[in-house]
Each structure stands twice: as structure tokens, then as C-alpha cells.
Amino acid sequence: MKDVFKIGKKRKKNERSPAEIALLVANVMAGLEVTAQEDADLNRQGKPAINKLKQLPLLTQVLSKKQLQLEFLDHGILTLLKNWLEPLPDGSLPNINIRMEILRILNEFPIDLEQCDRREQLKKSGLGRVIMFLSKSDEETRLNRKLAKELVDKWSRPIFNNSILFEDIRKKKKCRR
Known about the structure:
The relative contact order is 0.10. The protein contains 9 helices and no strands. By secondary structure, the protein is an all-alpha fold. The protein has a single domain (2-176), classed as Transcription Elongation Factor S-II, Chain A, CATH 1.20.930.10. This is TFIIS N-terminal domain-containing protein. It comes from Phaseolus vulgaris. Residues 79-162 form the TFIIS N-terminal domain. It is found in: Nucleus.
């Protein structure tokens, strides 16, 4: 699966069809979801949950590709990232490297909260709650708390903005329909 996204020889930009790209993204997502579930199961058994750590290079590789980021958003990457970031069944946080990489990626990710569907997608994913938890957790590193706080600030303004301007109120009503 790792080789699917590697760029060997220079290729034409439109070599893969949108359907092929969607299928590749769906396959990667499915594998990453299984990884998160396996770690949760291992944690319940009292065993080390290291599958996500093994797959972290793949996650960072595919999510750093700008041309694939919107496709990943369309396939529900925010929910998957929530599953990777949330505490394990025993209450422990995922590996520090996992948290650090995902927070870094999210700070660079093109989530346009001006779009109603992206705002709703972020709300439904539950990722914001996990990020908020990390921003306040004493177990989190100072740098990760700072990154999480930046995300909370960046995301909460468009989501909870209570503007008194008529134009803004009208836009919010359109989103609710």
C-alpha cells in the first residue's frame, strides 16, 4: 500500500482517474481504521498498542500530499484522525509521536470552515473534542498543547462566531437548511 502513493518517475498529473484516486484513498483509509481498531483491542488485552506507530509513516506520507488532501477530507479523514488521537480504552494517550504528527498535519490541513459541509463534517467527526482535551491535558507536552490550542482557536472562530452583522446571520441560516 505504501508504494501506491510514491512518485518514482515523473508522471503526467492526470495519469490516474478521479475514480482510481478515490479507490486508493478509500483503501488507505480502511487500512488505517483497522490499525486503530487493532490497537484498541491490544490495549484492552493489556498488550502494547504499536500498530498505529508502525503505520504513522504511511499516514504522514499520504496526508502530506496536497493533491490528495481534499479527497481524504471527502472520505472522512477527520473521524479517522479522531480515532487515532483519542485516549485508548485504558485511558492512556496514544504514543507522543502519533499525537505530535497528527497535530502538525492538522495545523497545515486545508479545512475550509467557510464551507457549511466542512464545518458540519468537523463537528460530526468529534475531532474538536479530542483536540480540546489534548489542549488542556496535563499529560500532553507543552508543544502539543500549544498546537492543539492553535487548532481550537482556528476552528472555533468560524464555528461559534456570533456576529451581529445581517450578512453573517443570513449565511448561518443558509447552512442550517
